[in-house]
Amino acid sequence: MPSLTSLAPAGPTATRSRTTATARRLMAICGTLLAALLCALSVGASSASAHAALTSTDPADGSVVKTAPREVTLNFSEGVLLSGDSVRVLDPKGKRVDTGKTAHVGGKSSTAAAGLHSGLPDGTYTVAWKAVSEDSHPVSGAFTFSIGAPSKTTAKVSTGGESDSTVGTLYGIGRYAAYGGFAALVGGCVFAGLCRSSRPVRKIAVGGWVTVFTATLVLLLLRGPYTDGEGIGGVLDLGRLGDVLSTKPGAALLSRLLLLGAAAIFLAVLFGSYTRRTGDGEVDARRRQDLAFGLGFGGTVMAVGLAATWAMAEHASVGLQRQLAMPVDVIHLIAVGVWMGGLASLAVTLWAGEPIERAAVRRFSRLAFGSVVALVVTGLYQSWRQVGSWGALTDTEYGRWLLVKVGLVAVLVGIAAVSRRWTGRLTDATAEAGAEKETEAEAESASEAASDAKATTEARAEAGTDAETAAAVKAAQPARTGAADAAIDTPAEAKSGEAKSGEESDDGDPVRAAQLARQRAAKGKATTRRERDADRERSGLRRSVIAETVVAVVLLAVATVLSGTQPGRAETEQAGAAATQPGRDRLNVDPVSVLIPYNTGPKSGRGKAVVMIEPALPGDNALHVFTTDLADRPVDVPEVKLSLTLGSKGIGPLRIPLERLSTGHWSARTVQLPMAGTWQLSLTVRTSDIDQVTETRNVKVAQ
């Protein structure tokens, strides 16, 4: 079998140029996809702020109550963190009429209540609210209710929960950088400890530490402006840091900074005492063995602690089975770090031409496979917990981003399989090449021995002739002494050797000696790199690892967007809660709710629609349409049309333009009903290009 170098079809230079071109193309693709995902991250910042959704209020939005309530109550889909002015109630003139104290009802974190002053006059009141969901995202909104009868209102409110665009973008980028830094830190340390420690790997790990530390510090400073909806100037208000640190997300960020301080010591030991070599193999092995247990235990504690700062403050900390979800999320994050950070470490090691044993590559391959298994198992559990149903995979924003993530993971696993095949070929080629080299070495040794014997015989014959000639010449020349004799008798080869030695040492000049040493080192490194680039197996492995790293970077961006999106289960529950919200004790003006079964023909065309009109009074009304299947699960249909007709007065049909808000939820905010009476409601539901049905019902609009 030919040597590995001879297998390169066009030589080292061609292989190197092809590898460089491939790497440049992959980096260009990575940059383009990453930029697009960062744009999506910033654009989706506003939608990501709807994690704790408002499910109901008392009084209800748009309702008219008989007497003034004692307090206003809000119910959310998950727990929220409140401040003193989380709920503000304004009268028709814009004056605050609440007591200024907001608290949870009965200790339930998913509620908020604000007391009202007594003796409030009739009119329309505006409620503005803002809070921070338990998964660290700000939420806000406003609604109105009326006492006695609706009235005009001049109240203008700013909920303060919509993040400034600049602050929201910076916060999203900071979250991505924190995830990426954590992956680089964990993966770099694991790769250095179990596979191969080198200067490029040290740069990956230390760079990850610097990135996650800087990003965490920036997130801590941006936290106040992000939740309060202020501009970038709010970062300078350090006085609000105390309020931020008193919240769960702020405490998690502070804990992360403290853990990173301990991680700095861990890095110093790992890339210092543990990897330092003294030349004495036994001493080095004994020192590494003494440090291995401490580093393994300390590194595990550090990784678990850092991962917990995310698990305890984001999606895993809210919702069902949170006691199980948080440990699962920790495992998921550590597996991501080991896989992606290890990939980056292997990529830079191969790219820099650092020597790495085939056994070390295979060791990382097994480690990566274990990480992928952990990712799949924990990811399936998290998907079930956050999505909740098959329909939510395509009907919610969270589900669609999850499908993108699953697709990228599949691509990454496919490339990883290619890398594993290259690793196997690398090992097999090494064994065969080693056997071939031993055979070639034996043949070369025998040939060299024969050549040496022949050269020795010839040299002796030439030496005798040269000695006789030199003696004759010396006898014929005049007598010389001293330096002249030395100059004559010194062979030319000796003179040239002394001159060359003097040139290299440059008369003992240390600057010149250092320059020559650097030149020799650079030449040796270039030679080594050319030889390794000629190895087709190593070049193939390097290309596949770089491709894995590119996809991993994009996957990390998608995961960051996903962590900032309202879970599909919460969005579905929000729509269901709105559809089944019970009536309130109001002045004979409860919202009109009409259940309309529909059937367009095929089996998939059967379902139910709920139409709600509130407050069902002459004037402005809000109208909602909810479509579900026969099992009361929200379902989308291609088109919903609605009209109202008051036949007794010859009014209508009034066609109502509907806007889709979420899965199975359409709404019209301003529906003008000119007078009371019994109106005919016509609802058209289209379930396919050709299947549709129109149903009619009567609804009563009170005086």
Task: Give a topology summary.
Elements: H1 11-43, E1 54-58, E2 64-65, E3 71-76, E4 80-81, E5 87-90, E6 98-105, E7 108-116, E8 123-133, E9 138-147, H2 165-194, H3 199-228, H4 241-245, H5 248-270, H6 281-311, H7 322-352, H8 358-387, H9 391-395, H10 397-476, H11 483-489, H12 492-505, H13 510-533, H14 536-563, H15 568-579, E10 592-599, E11 606-614, E12 619-628, E13 639-646, E14 651-656, E15 659-662, E16 665-673, E17 677-686, E18 692-701
Parallel strand pairs: 2-9
Antiparallel strand pairs: 1-3, 3-7, 4-8, 5-8, 6-7, 8-9, 10-11, 11-12, 12-16, 13-14, 13-17, 15-16, 17-18
Care to give the gist of this entry?
The protein is an alpha+beta fold.
State the low-pLDDT regions, or none: 1-20, 32-50, 428-446, 455-463, 465-505, 581-589
What structural class do the secondary elements suggest?
alpha+beta
pLDDT averaged over residues? 75
Largest sheet, strands/sense/barrel = 5 strands, mixed
Integer-rounded radius of gyration = 38 Å
Percent helix: 40-55%
**DSSP, total strands:** 18
Beta content comes to 15-25%
Cα(first) to Cα(last) distance is 97 Å
Gross geometry: elongated
Describe what you observe in this structure.
The chain is of the alpha+beta class and 703 residues long. The protein contains 15 helices and 18 strands. The strands form 4 sheets. Strands 2, 4, 5, 8 and 9 form a 5-stranded mixed beta sheet that branches. The chain has a 5-stranded antiparallel beta sheet with strand order 10-11-12-16-15. Strands 1-3-7-6 form a 4-stranded antiparallel beta sheet. Helix 5 (248-270) packs antiparallel against helix 6 and helix 7 packs antiparallel against helix 8 (358-387). The radius of gyration is 38 Å and the shape is elongated.
